[in-house]
């Protein structure tokens, strides 16, 4: 960023961008005033292990945290298999490079929310308040098809998915946002909720918290301005 002439800046990211901005927060460059994540890793290690084992949620969890626990359990149990294949056997996904129909089916059905196929289906059915259009979806698929990057992107995507739920020790101020469709929901109670440096958490009632282009652009812009206003 210094090479681009920026002496003070903030960073925002969701999905892959969340992993990038969290690493920026860990490195804590002097020029970095703060980071914002709309895919925050918030599950303590003990909770994450319990979810991996398939344990029921602890009986003393508040209702909101119990919902988050069950949502993450469902994500690991039924939605993350695609990432395990991508991380361990990416070359078996040769269909992504062989057929645009296979590539489209994989991208639409691997699940970008709590349901399957996820948020994209709701966008196409016009049941989700979203600025995302059919052309946006086709553009995204076409980008991977023309560059033949579906398979090469698989190993990295698989690895980052499995580590996205646990908190990172960011040393920067870290506002976060989530929605009911987020696979990682912020914890609001307890000694490790959600990370020591998180300064604010916003939960939206609608939209895709992990995919700003899929939710209201004005809502996303307002969220960013509110999150970083105190850092000016």
Structure characterization notes:
The chain is mainly alpha-helical and 232 residues long. The chain has helices at 16-27, 45-53, 63-79, 81-88, 95-98, 100-109, 119-124, 134-147, 154-162, 217-228; strands spanning 9-13, 32-37, 176-178, 201-203. Strands 1-2 form a two-stranded parallel ribbon. A two-stranded parallel ribbon has the order 3-4. The longest helix has 17 residues, at 63-79. It is globular.
User: Strands of the biggest beta sheet: in what spatial order?
Assistant: 1-2
**What is the general shape?**
globular
Percentage of helical residues?
40-55%
Share of β-strand residues? 5-15%
Rg for CA atoms: 18 Å
Distance between the termini: 18 Å
What's the β-strand tally? 4
Q: What characterizes the major β-sheet? A: 2 strands, parallel
Low-confidence segments, given as residue ranges, are: 185-196, 205-215
Tally the helices: 10
Protein structure class: mainly alpha
Q: What is the H/E string? A: EHEHHHHHHHHEEH
Query: Would you tell me the overall average pLDDT?
Result: 74
Key features?
single chain; mainly alpha; two-stranded parallel ribbon; 10 helices; 4 strands; 44% helix
Task: Describe the structure concisely for a colleague.
The chain contains 10 helices and 4 strands; from the N terminus they run E-H-E-H-H-H-H-H-H-H-H-E-E-H. Residues about 185-195 and about 205-215 have low confidence and may be disordered. It has helices at about 15-25, 45-55, 65-80, 80-90, 95-100, 100-110, 120-125, 135-145, 155-160, 215-230; strands at about 10-15, 30-35, 175-180, 200-205.
């Amino acid at each position: 960023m210094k090479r681009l002439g920026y002496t003070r800046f903030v960073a925002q990211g969701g999905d892959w961008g969340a992993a990038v901005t969290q690493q920026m927060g860990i490195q804590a460059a002097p020029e970095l005033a703060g980071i914002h994540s709309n895919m925050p890793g918030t599950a303590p290690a003990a909770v994450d292990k319990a979810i991996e084992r398939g344990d029921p949620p602890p009986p003393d969890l508040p209702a909101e945290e119990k919902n988050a626990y069950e949502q993450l359990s469902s994500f690991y149990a039924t939605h993350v298999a695609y990432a395990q294949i991508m991380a361990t056997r990416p070359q078996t996904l040769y269909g992504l490079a062989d057929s645009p129909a296979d590539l489209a089916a994989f991208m639409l059905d691997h699940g970008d929310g709590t349901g399957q196929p996820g948020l994209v289906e709701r966008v196409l059915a016009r049941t989700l308040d979203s600025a995302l259009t059919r052309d946006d979806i086709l553009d995204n698929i076409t980008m991977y098809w023309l560059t033949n990057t579906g398979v090469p992107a698989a190993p990295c995507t698989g690895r980052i998915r499995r580590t996205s739920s646990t908190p990172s020790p960011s040393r920067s101020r870290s506002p976060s946002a989530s929605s009911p469709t987020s696979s990682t929901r912020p914890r609001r109670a307890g000694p490790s909720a959600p990370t020591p440096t998180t300064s604010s958490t916003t939960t939206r009632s609608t939209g895709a918290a992990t995919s700003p282009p899929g939710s209201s652009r004005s809502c996303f812009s307002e969220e960013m301005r509110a999150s970083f206003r105190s850092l000016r």
